[in-house]
Design a protein that fits this description.
By secondary structure, this protein is α/β, with parallel strands linked by helices. The protein has helices spanning about 15-20, 25-30, 35-45, 65-75, 85-100, 140-150, 170-190, 195-205, 205-215, and strands spanning about 55-60, 80-85, 105-110, 125-130, 150-160, 220-225, 230-240. It is globular, with a radius of gyration of 17 Å. The chain has a domain at about 30-160 and about 205-240: Rossmann fold (3-Layer(aba) Sandwich), CATH 3.40.50.150. α5 links the parallel β2 (about 80-85) and β3 (about 105-110). The two termini are about 35 Å apart. α3 (about 35-45) packs across α4 (about 65-75) and α7 (about 170-190) runs antiparallel to α8. About 45% of the residues are buried.
Length: about 240
Amino acid sequence: MMQTQNSRADGSGAMFDGIAPRYDVLNRLMSFGLDRRWRRQLVASLKLARLPQGASVLDVATGTGDVALALLRARPDLRVTGLDPSPGMLALAAQKRAHQNLHEGALALVEGDAQAMPFADDTFAGACISFGIRNVPDRLKGLSEMRRVVQRGGTVAILELGEPKDGPLKTLARWHVHTLVPFLGRLLSGAGAYAYLQQSIAQFPPPEDFLALMRQAGLEEVSAKRLSFGAVHLYTGRVG
């Protein structure tokens, strides 16, 4: 979500390598701690109770592994795979895995591109991505890949930030994105490139347009749920 002075500011794995050590604390501060609640809602949307024993679930753009670990807390019998383009992020996820005394059979961490996933068709019972689809250059390809690797009837869930265009918190949300986020980035990381995050949130398509993209990728029964007055949306679709 940010970069250091000498790293890239384009949402790439290289950019996230540069900010990995500060990623979690900055997320807590920038979201006022709400990111944990949002991720719990993402996990709940996958309807894990309906999945068979030992089902495989994919967490795309797993980062430092928070969602992957939340999936395992909800269903310890799952086999979770976390995919991310950043080795630095995956190294931190591996540390968390070790701290939880988990093995690679429970949580596999794979370096890879969301636009060309290294998995066979119909590998997973469900898939999710948390605050990551915004950083995928070809979002349609990323969504199509999620549909491809998820089995028929499975859920694809996407949690993403956005800039509310209306509602009671419109002004506050714009101040948060355009003023507070860049300020925290400079203050806590010594970086001046939180402009990437600011721009990527502001430029993310409105819910109706993103739902259309999900349908174009082949997902069915798509829906969008507003969280925190529209600062975040939880999108879900079913693989037909």
